[in-house]
Amino acid sequence: MSLWIWLLIACLLAYAWKLVGYFVPARLLEDPRMSRVAGTMTIGLLASLTVVNTFATGQSLAVDARLGALAAAAIALALRAPFLVVVLAGAGTAALLRMLGWN
């Protein structure tokens, strides 16, 4: 099968999944437990995405400038810097470390 067919199938499945959300009864969404579960899942998914993007290269683990960028961004967050400053701190640190040869 062509890649475009698989792409269209994935788009249709994502759209269908979104439509299914409209059929969930409102009383289930108003339950406080559902809010806690949704919030916890969001945090867990974001954390796992961050870890995978920081340490994974293809099918192997790697320690490179991305780790320094994550550390710089974490320090900026701990200092309660604005989001743009956090992004710039991470990007600048990654650029500096790569310039110094730590790929």
General description of the model:
- The protein is mainly alpha-helical.
- It is built from five helices and two strands; from the N terminus they run H-H-H-E-E-H-H.
- A hairpin with a 2-residue loop joins strand 1 and strand 2.
- Helix 4 runs antiparallel to helix 5.
- The protein is flat.
- About 10% of the residues are buried.
- The model has no long low-confidence stretch (mean pLDDT about 90).
- It comes from Pseudarthrobacter phenanthrenivorans (strain DSM 18606 / JCM 16027 / LMG 23796 / Sphe3).
- Keywords: Membrane, Transmembrane, Transmembrane helix.
- InterPro entries: Brnchd-chn_aa_trnsp_AzlD.
Number of strands: 2
Order of helices and strands: HHHEEHH
What are the segments in which pLDDT stays under 50 over at least 5 consecutive residues?
none
- Helix vs. strand class: mainly alpha
Which strand-content bin applies to the residues? Answer: under 5%
**Mean pLDDT over all positions:** 91
Question: Shape from CA axes?
Answer: flat
Terminal CA distance reads: 37 Å
Q: What share of the residues lie within helices? A: over 70%
DSSP helix count?
A: 5
User: Radius of gyration in whole Å, from Cα?
Assistant: 20 Å
Biggest sheet: strands, sense, closure? 2 strands, antiparallel
Strand order of the largest sheet: 1-2
